[in-house]
Amino acid sequence: MNAALDVQGLTTRFDTRAGTVTAVNDVSFSVEPGRIMGLVGESGSGKSVTGFSILGLIEEPGRITDGRVLVEGTDLRAMPPGQLRSMRGRKVSMVFQDPMMTLNPVLRIGDQMSMAVRVHERMNKRQALARSRDALAKVGIPSPEERLSAYPHQLSGGMRQRVAIAIALLHRPAVIIADEPTTALDVSIQGQILAEVRRLADETRTAIVWVTHDLAVVSSLADDICVMYAGRIVERGTAEDVIARPRHPYTRGLLDSVPGQHAPGTHLPQIPGSTPQLSRLPSGCPFRNRCPRATEVCTTEPPVARFGGHTALCHHPLEAA
Amino acid sequence: MLGFIVSRLIQAIVVVFVMSVVVFVGVYAIGNPIDVMIDPGATAEIRENLIRQYGLDQPLWRQYLSFLGNVAEGDLGRSMVYNTSVVGLVFSRLPATLELVLVAVAIATVIGIPAGIYAGYKPDSAGAKAIMALSVLGFSVPTFWIGMLLIMAFAVELGWLPSGGRGEVGTILGIPTSLATANGWSHVILPAINLSLFKMGLLIRLTRAGMVEAMQTDYVKFARAQGLTDRQIVFSHILRNISIPIVTVFGLELGSTLAFAVVTETVFTWPGVGKLIIDSILQLDRPVMVTYLILVVILFVLINFTVDVVYARLDPRVRLGGSR
Amino acid sequence: MSDVATTTGETLAVPSAAPIETRATRLRNFWADFRRSWVAVGALIVIVALLAVSFGAPLVAPQNPYDMASLDWMDAFLTPGETGTGGYVHILGTDNAGRDMLSAIFYGLRTSFTIGVSAGALALAIGICVGLTAAYFGGRVESLLMRIVDLQLSMPAILLALVLVAMLGQGVVQIILALVVAQYAYFARTTHGAATVERGKDYIEAARSTPLPTRRVLFRHLLPNVLPPLIVVATVQVASAIALEATLSFLGVGLPLTEPSLGSLISNGFKYIHSDRYWLSIYPGLFLMVTVVAINLVGDQVRTVLDPRRSR
Q: Which residues of A touch C9 (CB under 8 A)?
């Protein structure tokens, strides 16, 4: 059986004044139908750019230079622009971070949704509205009929994000890229949305790539985890493996710096230094000057890893305990 | 909505009143019109009589009060130069100006907005750069000089169009206008183009800026991610959003187009109110100046008022804001 | 500029040319950015050249158009390239009074620049004071000042200037005054807008909580931060002051022909538009257009360089 999404060697570069930077560097992963993959990284790690690259929505001065993006076995990268556009929203869709910004403020919810319906399927406005209403009901929006004639500013943030998710689900896509969709929400709303998404993934067999910086969210939601650092995936495995037995020193550091798991009053461990700028990465392993395990070899040789099972891109991975 | 309209109306009336004082005081500070009107050889007696006849011996506040009283009766005085009722004079000239402004605004809109959309949609293309370069020209080159070039090219050199004046006047729906005759159109087209260029440049820049900004928004990216076509994104999503600032500025600029008609009318000897005000300034014809300026203030206030209402209609956040 | 906005709205950290921005490096960076547009550089060169010939007019112009004694009726309406009684070639011809057009244009340009720059500078100074005062004190002072400014902004500058010149009479000082009154409001609005944004920021609160005099907070802390948008408005306003003066002179309420500005030269030439004496109006107009467009092009590039939202 084909994976819902199979990304192979995806590379995205940006031409900046300081030279070309590689925001997404040889990223590969795949997601099976109905599974949720957490794509974790700090800001600037390239996780969001990865999401946009999958949909082919990279704008100047950026460009996707390499790799394949297979959705149910067909390569989006090999498609002409028109065909690629018809895949968006139908086979792959996306949910954005800030629900306050993703809906057009001057158009009614129903108009925005029916437009999204009718771009991929021939039907009249009434049918499209009916479909939209069903989609709203499915994501747990009360009295969906009324919401159709509402404007975005009349809904709460959580409601708007549900609308965005409903739009993403309209055509039962194989894959949804969710770019930090709960970051901008209150914690209580966050929990509701997470539960809703988990249920929807199970029900609709949609594969979900959940882009986030929040390991806590991912550990409770995702089936698999990829950790990104400086444009590369540095660790990959099942959520349980990565959370319980991290192999990359960076993942270890991230997990240690999550508050709440330490005795009150003790110092919270931190990763020393800060995220490097992509245009001036250190030689060898990009993490080496923040890494407690770095040795001579890390300064000269970039680490390589053959991914499969639980793997880390590191010369000195932590032993699986 | 009704409360909104009423409060806006009251504000508008206050503004008109305040401006009428400013205009009156301002205009009456200018020179002594008697010196311009009578020939220097006239006797002191004739002079005195004239001054009394026009009420110029009264203190300024009394002149203003009697002016207000006359205004209440619909009388803004008589022109010192034409010796006719000022209201009649201004209103006889107004249609010519309005038709000129109307055609100019139509030209600016029909060309400016699509050009701005294109320039904002493909900002790096050669076409967009050419459009922007032209908009800088339209924006910065003084109107009167372009008008002069138009006359030189199309009237003097090519002889295709008349160089000035208003053509034959016909009637459309009972309104006398030169837009009813071919000859009238041949007269109106050059001045209208001249008057439209500034506004066109402005509209192009405004529309382009709105496009460029909207293209960066999340809702446009989200629409892309839904697989909407570029056409749908531009026409259904973006246009609706940028129409709000465009309508606002457009309305406000309508007033300035009216004011800039002064220049175009002078260049093309177009018999509108703009030409009238220049003549009356040069001849110190105070009643005409006051009437014109107050008329402009009223038009401005009316336009602002309309823009506010339209704005409230267009933006759901304002329209429904009161009920929250 | 150290950030590159990506399609995701996230920023990629990219190093800036100099990590610590001193005034000198800021200027250098500004120039490096400005230079990217060859159009703008060309426009700047044109402006410098025009400034040179206009303020150096007594040295470069073959004739002094102010000096009625040097004008000869015999030289009236010479076509460009003809040699007059003065024994030199009138490159751009002469006008109805025998003025050498090239000289008149150089002198006229000087008048235009003087009026444009001094009106712009005065309007800038007054506008900054009004805008900063309104933003700093807030409350009733703010609403009163800004109400006046808004009212004035809703009136077109041309109309205001027209009435003012009619009131004040003709002459360079009167024109400058009229332009200042018509234009200060733009600066006041820009200053006020930028300053209210800055006002909310912590550093102003911090400065206010120290016993620094108000004036110092206003001019040493607030002003530098609202300067970039003002620079842009200033360039545009100088250009529009020049254009406005020309327009007023053209309409006959500006400067008389004995004190040539570009506008009065064109106005004079306009009388001969139906004869073939095109050079009387075309050449001063060309100089006017080139001047105004060049200033606007420079202003455009300055705006692009200073735009904080610029992504590249």
A: 48, 97
Beta-strand ranges (E) seen in C6-118 are 11-13
pTM of the model: 0.76
User: Using one digit for the tens of pLDDT, what is the confidence trace for B239-291?
Assistant: 888 887 787 777 777 777 887 888 888 888 888 888 888 888 877 777 788 78
Q: Please, what's the largest Cα pairwise distance for chain A? A: 67
Rounded to whole angstroms, the Cα distance separating C57 from A179 reads: 65
What distance in Å separates the CA atoms of residue A77 and residue A95, rounded to the nearest whole number? 21
Give me the residue from C154, C162, C296 closest to B140, CB to CB. C296
What one-character DSSP code corresponds to residue C83? B
Number of folded domains that form chain C: 1
Nearest to B186 by CA among B166, B172, B158, B170: B166
| Mean pLDDT, all residues of chain A | 87
- Which phi and psi angles does A284 have, rounded to 5°? 70, -130
Residues 6 or more apart whose CB falls under 8 angstroms from that of C93 comprise C77, C78, C79, C80, C81, C82, C101, C277, C279, C280, C283
Is there a domain that residue C41 lies in?
A: no
The tokens describing B52, both together, are 């009394």
- Nearest chain B residue (CA) to A82: B229
In a domain, C216, yes or no: yes
Q: A243 at the C interface (CB within 8 A)?
A: no
If you average pLDDT over residues A47-69, what whole number do you get? 89
Q: How far, in Å, CA of C101 to CA of C257, rounded? A: 13
- C39 Cα to chain B: minimum distance (Å): 10
Tens digits of residue pLDDT in C25-54: 777 777 877 787 888 888 888 888 888 878
Residue with tokens 């508050």: A259
Give all domains of chain B, ordered by start, each with its CATH number. Answer: 1-80+284-324 (no CATH), 88-282 (1.10.3720.10)
Is the ipTM reported for this complex over the cut 0.85?
yes
Residue of C152 and A97 predicted with greater confidence: A97
A14 touches chain C (CB under 8 A): yes
Share of chain B above pLDDT 70, in %: 86
Distant-in-sequence contacts of A79-86, Cβ < 8 A, 24+ apart: A84/A56, A85/B227, A85/B229, A86/A120, A86/B227
For residue C4, which residues of chain A lie inside 8 Å, CB to CB? 14, 16, 21, 61
Rounded CA gap, B137 and C40, in Å? 14
Contact A280 C1 (CB under 8 A): no
Tell me, what amino acid is at B163? S
Q: Do C7 and B26 touch (CB under 8 A)?
A: no
* Whole-number Å distance between alpha carbons of B12 and A177: 52
Q: How far apart are CA B138 and CA B197, in angstroms?
A: 5
Enclosing domain of residue C298: 46-61+100-311
Is the minimum CB–CB distance between B197 and chain C shorter than 8 Å?
Answer: no
The residues with which A227 forms a beta bridge, in sequence order, are: A40, A235
> CA–CA distance from B298 to each of A150, B15, B109, C162 (Å)?
38, 9, 24, 18
Walk me through the domains of chain A, giving residue ranges and CATH numbers: 5-91+171-313 (3.40.50.300)
